[in-house]
Design a protein that fits this description.
This protein has helices at residues 6-21, 26-37, 41-52, 73-86, 90-109. It has 110 residues and is mainly alpha-helical. The longest helix has 20 residues, at 90-109. The protein is 67% helix and 0% strand.
Length: 110
């Protein structure tokens, strides 16, 4: 069985949060969630339990795609050190760096 993506989990939690906000009986909410997302009732109850602890819906997460490329060793070391210092993953560091680079390109093009 494959694990769900962060985007899928966010959709599940937000649907559970919305159902709880509608003051629907927990059993009915679990049944709806299980049906809509093809979950077991036990899984649906777990999502409802998690959603009950939320103060607001979780932010939508953009789906990610794995890519592979080669970088010089010194660049990878610098990226890892930066990620460690900031408490982020390599993916988060690279995403932020690429977003800044693309933003600079867009500003130059006008």
């Amino acid at each position: 069985m494959t694990r769900g993506t962060k985007a899928h989990k966010a959709r599940l939690l937000n649907t559970a949060y919305r159902l709880l906000g509608q003051r629907i009986e927990t059993a009915d909410a679990a049944q709806r969630l299980a049906h809509e997302f093809a979950l077991s009732r036990r899984q649906a109850y777990r999502y409802l339990e998690q959603a009950a602890t939320l103060r607001a819906p979780v932010p939508a997460v953009e789906p990610t795609v794995a890519i592979t490329f080669k970088l010089p060793v010194h660049t990878v070391r610098a990226l890892r050190a930066c990620a460690r210092r900031r408490g982020l993953t390599l993916g988060q560091i690279v995403t932020q760096a690429l977003a800044a680079l693309l933003g600079a390109f867009r500003r130059r093009r006008g």
